Every structure is written in C-alpha cells, then in structure tokens.
Amino acid sequence: MKIIESTQLAEDRCNLETYGVPQSTVSTVVKNKEKWIAMQDKGNLRKPRAVSNERLEKAMKLFVQQARENNLPLSGIMIREKAKDFACQLGFTEFKGSAGWLSKFAKRQNLAFKKLCGESASVDTNMSDDFKQKTLPDLVRGYDPKDIYNANETASFYKCLPDKTYTMQSEACHGGKYSKQRITVLCATNMDGSDKLPLLVIDKLININLQFFPPNATSVLQPLDLGIIKNLKHYYRYSLVKRRLDEMEQKKDFSDITVLDAIKYMSRNWAADVKPSTIANCFAKAGFVCPDADQQWNEDIQEDLPTITDDMMAHLSEGVSFSAYCNVDDDLTTAELMSDDDILEFVTEPKSVNREDVEDTEDDPHQPLEVTSSMVRNTLGAMNNILAATENVPAEMFGIYYALEQFLQQKY
C-alpha cells in the first residue's frame, strides 16, 4: 500500500532503494493497484503474524543487543546456532533455526550484517575530521567554555595492587574471575575545568543541549578519553601504592581495599588532583574551541605526575613498573556480559528472590560507623593540633577547619 500511495502522490519513481524489493515487483504492485485497494477496503490484507516463541525472541534480541553494545562480531550462522541452543533449553523442540527464520528475525529486529563498528574497530578519520571541522564549531557557538560539558563512564579494578597487574589485565575485556572487583565511574566536567561534577552524581541541570559523538570516533573526539580519565586513574593508583607502602613502613597488616575506600580515594583525586589545565587541554585536543576563546591544544604541555620508582615498586611486585600498573584496566568494560543462563533466566517467569542466595559482592563490607560527640571532639582536637604544629598553612585552611568544627558540633 505504501508503494501505491507513493504513486498517487505523484512521486517520480518507486525503486529498490526505497522499498527494498525488485523493480519488477514494484511495477506489478502499481499495475494491480485497484485489486490491492479493494482488498484493503474489505479488510482482506493479511496482518503480520505474531511471533510464535516470544521467550526465544526476547532471548535472541537480548543476545544480539549485548553483542552489538560490546562490539562483538556476529554472523548469520552464529545467530542461528545460538537460537537453536536457546530453543532447546526453552523446550521448543520443533524449532529448526532455518535461514528463513533468520531473515524474518533480522527484519523484525532491524538487523543488518555489516562491518563491525564501535570503539574497538578502526577509527574513521574522515568522519572524525568532518565532525571537528564542520559540526563541532556550530555546536559550541554561542556557549561559554564553562557551559560546555563532557561526560563519560570508565571502569576500574578498584582492589588491584601491583602484584595482580598482569593477572587482571587478562580479564580486562569482558569480565571473568575478577569482574566482581570492578566499579564503574561516571566522570563529567566542563570545558575549562572549573566545574568537575561529583563522580557518579550529576546535579539537576536545566536547558541542556545534549549531543552524542559520531560512532566509532570517541577515541579521538571524546575529551575525557583523551587524557582526563587516564589522569584520574594515575592519581588513584598512586594513592593505593602509597597506602600500601605506608603500611609496610609502619609494619601494619595490609588492609583490604573496599568499594568505600575506592570512592573516597577517587573523589579526592578528582576534586584535588585532576587540574583544570589538563581538562582544558584535552577539550582543545578534541577540537572544542569556542570562537571567542583564545584556546589551542598544546601538545608540549606535560603535567608533572607523581610516580613510584622501580625500586619502590619491587617491594610490592617484582618486575611490574608503575606505568604498567596504571594501565591495568585500560581495556576493562564498564558492564558485565550476561551469560546464556542469565539471558534464559531473564526471559522466563520471574521468581522470588531468597536473600540468603544473593551473593555478597564485598568480602569485608564496611559497617556503618557509630559517631559520638566524644569521637568528634577528640578528632577535631587532633586536627587543630596538627594545623597548629604545621608551618605555612594557608589562612583559608583555618577557615575551612572552623566551618567544619561548627558543623560537626551542631550535628553531634
């Protein structure tokens, strides 16, 4: 009927590209349009058949969607074999997984078998250059650098210490034994680095003009991927190594690193260590240049990052450099892939959850700290003594201390 409507609207041509059918078929439909119109008026046109195995359809849709999101290659044969496997487990013994089923499934799910794209594939330099030169200038025009934000997620093996570097790198791509020691962090900052939003938390914003980067080009267009996240992870790894070396120096037992520890360290690194100049330079490198702003990417800017010598690293793990340790989770995915059992469980009838069956993801969880007035008083007194004994403390630090003291005393 769409073909007939097009001819009635005097469209100049009905062709293969428009309707996905041979030209001869288009011509035949147009020739017999009176018959098709009469059948539609009588309600004799067949309606699309409902999917016979809804659970299988849902399972395969989830399987394909997951593969797409993680840039995993899929062929028609792989999809058919997986469908037959799922059908067997779901009890659909008559399902054959034929080429005809694949064709209909692909049509229902709008699948096209083509070259893999995404961040794991090769970067389309022509498309990324075109975005930088033609699209991006229009997007940033009329905005101040302080009003242009970039957000991106990253994953980290938060418990990993140097002695596990090479072991955990082998698990980086799609989970595995150490996948439960992973946390996902959302970073967001503005173009000049003056507003680094709290990690994982985005305050309520209004009048947002949200734009997405072209596919398969974020590695060259995403400011956070061009050094900001790597800078954050460098400081986080440095904090963990310093903590372990301090425990060795003080002859303390090694303490486990919890999710709460990771959040505290990363939040402090993000707020205090990642510099606005680093952020601004990464935005400029990605092509974010406001017309009225005097800002260019300077590849000669090299931040003096703290590091750990090989001799010091040898106390923690023989043969692992600090740079290698910092790169341990470069290829870590931000989400766990669902197994076949997970997919099948998801598409079957929901069942009640037994709390005893829920796996605790934290071996030694932090118990809520019971804060007392005497604890607050003693801690504040110790902080006051440290400030008094420290030379060249900036005046504003005392103001911060007094504000904190007043807040905690009112609270407790």
TrEMBL record:
<dbReference type="Pfam" id="PF03184">
    <property type="entry name" value="DDE_1"/>
</dbReference>
<dbReference type="InterPro" id="IPR004875">
    <property type="entry name" value="DDE_SF_endonuclease_dom"/>
</dbReference>
<dbReference type="InterPro" id="IPR050863">
    <property type="entry name" value="CenT-Element_Derived"/>
</dbReference>
<keyword id="KW-0238">DNA-binding</keyword>
<protein>
    <recommendedName>
        <fullName>HTH CENPB-type domain-containing protein</fullName>
    </recommendedName>
</protein>
<dbReference type="GO" id="GO:0005634">
    <property type="term" value="C:nucleus"/>
</dbReference>
<feature type="domain" description="HTH CENPB-type">
    <location>
        <begin position="44"/>
        <end position="115"/>
    </location>
</feature>
<dbReference type="InterPro" id="IPR006600">
    <property type="entry name" value="HTH_CenpB_DNA-bd_dom"/>
</dbReference>
<dbReference type="GO" id="GO:0003677">
    <property type="term" value="F:DNA binding"/>
</dbReference>
<dbReference type="InterPro" id="IPR009057">
    <property type="entry name" value="Homeodomain-like_sf"/>
</dbReference>
<dbReference type="Pfam" id="PF03221">
    <property type="entry name" value="HTH_Tnp_Tc5"/>
</dbReference>
